[in-house]
Amino acid sequence: MQKLLDSLLFISFCLFTILLGTCTDDATENLATPYATFSQDSITLSPEQGEVTLSVEWSATTWEIRMEEESGMIRHISPTSGGNRNKQYGQNTITIQFSENSTEKRRTQVLFLTNMESGEHSQITLIQDSRLIPLSIQLDKSVRYQYVYGFGGMYNPKIWLSPDNLITRDELLKMYSSEGLGYNILRLMIYPNEADWSADVEGAKLAQQQGAIVIAAPWDCTDAYAETITLNGREYKHLKQEHYQDYANHLISYINFMKEQGVNIFAVSVQNEPDMEFTFWHPEEVVAFVKEHGASIRETGVKLMAPEACGMSAEYTDPVLNDPVAFEQTDIVAGHLYQGFVKMEESSYVKNRHDYIVGLYNRKLAAAGKSWWMTEHLFNDGEKESNPALWQFHDWSYNLETLAQEIHMCMEGYCSAYIYWYLKRFYGMIGDHDTRSAAAPGEVLKNGYILSHYAKYATGMTRIKVGVGASDIKATAYINDEETEISIVLLNMKADAWLGQISIPGTISQISALETTAARNMQPTSATVGSENRSATVNISGNSIVSVNIQVK
Fold first, then answer.
1. Backbone phi, then psi, for 318, in 5-degree steps?
2. Superfamily for 149-459?
3. According to CATH, where is 2.60.40.10 located in the chain?
4. Which of 169, 238, 513, 526 could disulfide-link 229, Cβ–Cβ 3.0 to 4.6 Å?
5. pLDDT value of position 179
């Protein structure tokens, strides 16, 4: 009997031990159903570049994350695997780094989570809206304004600059070739001494071979024809009236000399800035000279520019416009913008000057078939500061708000050509040897790219009406004579990015766009054709200049 009881106790103990063993953690985990899942089905991301976290919950398995098709949204995922088949429950935090959505559409990315024990999948959809704000751009080719001759700058005068800062052949090609920046107007100085005229021949010929227009202006009427006069306590060089014929012959000789060398001068000026100290002219003297000698100068085949005052002031411009004979002999009303133009909000003086200048076309020029050209200006605020941080011409925002905005305002104000001051200068189009230059000698500066946006997209075309649905976006549009090409130059003066939605008066066969920003220089930006080839979209980055070219059928 005792043996039987002992046997039953032993059996009971073994059964208890077995049952107890089945309740251990490991045994319990081995009996759990393996699973792995995302904690949510979808998540919305910011349009800007950023980072987001999400959770993976799992039990008794390992897991892996994968993408079958990549949208370009995801930059990095960590971790992409985890779990433990011997654990009943676990949770991991997943960090996802994503890129900015600079496309015009919402984009999605599906992530798949694989349960490595069962092979089952779960998924999460990442959704990212475009950062671009829709912007309506309406073109109307039936409303036409001025013809645009082009853009360029001043060829460095050899009598003023050191040899190492003169423009080289390669630098000129970089600016004036179609493969380069595409400029097409070169301005020369008419030196007072004929012996110096040959210095600019090779450069002018090279630019002309690239399709450039060559214009010229005198600073000095030559000592032989001059006298000294005193105005308001200051002495000025002044052309004697009895030498008007000699001075006209001087200009004609220059035109003929250049022609003999293979350079066809397109236009000459009576005087660069007659209101300044180079050679001073009273307004009525400019009128008298043009009336008496304009015809003989124009008989050479060149166009005559006048009065080319420093501030394009009414004091000098109106006398030429209001005299019938002088106006008839003036092909191009030229002037500079040194006395204010862009910042109209700063003073009534600047606003009045701006309104006067942009009013010339409709008031007088259009009906006579004439145009106005901006033939000289520069922007170099801060250049005299010893601290480079104060050289404003190094800042993209400054370049955008000065040069880019001024060219836009000139085009919008019926200007037919924009010519900057020195092409090669630390505040110009390409860098020079000055320590203040933001680029190495011969390398393109931000101003150089700004001018190129207009040179490549507006030259030889007629400005047409364009409407834009945002005050921070400034736009001008152009069409060629055959109506097969339309271009738009857009300035975005704020940090917001936009999706330009363009309505096209025609059927699009091709579209392309380039942008310049603080970080990019005339690089391609997204431009796509819409439904039925009658519309298009273009990405407009914050604080940028964007040029769009549209081929139409």
1. -60, -40
2. Glycosidases (3.20.20.80)
3. 30-128
4. 238
5. 97
What are the φ and ψ backbone dihedral angles of 462, each rounded to 5 degrees? -110, 130
* Span 385-422, pLDDT tens digits: 999 999 999 999 999 999 999 999 999 999 999 999 99
What are the tokens at 331? 């092909």
Tokens (6 digits) for 41 = 């089905």
DSSP conformational letter for 369: T
Q: Looking at the domain that runs over 133-138+480-552, which CATH code has it been given?
A: 2.60.40.1180
Tell me which residue of 478, 468, 479, 484 sits closest to 540, measured CA to CA. Answer: 468
| Region for 494 from its dihedrals, namely left if φ exceeds 0, alpha if ψ lies in -120 to 50, beta otherwise | beta
* Residues forming CATH 2.60.40.1180 domain(s) in the chain: 133-138+480-552
CATH 3.40.366.10 for domain 30-128, yes or no, is no
Q: What CA–CA distance (Å, rounded) separates 268 from 260?
A: 16
Token reading at 225: 């024809």
pLDDT digits (tens, 9 = 90+) for 17-33: 444 444 444 444 455 89
Percent of the chain surpassing pLDDT 90: 87
Phi, psi angle pair for 464, to nearest 5°: -125, 170
Structure tokens at 476: 């001008």
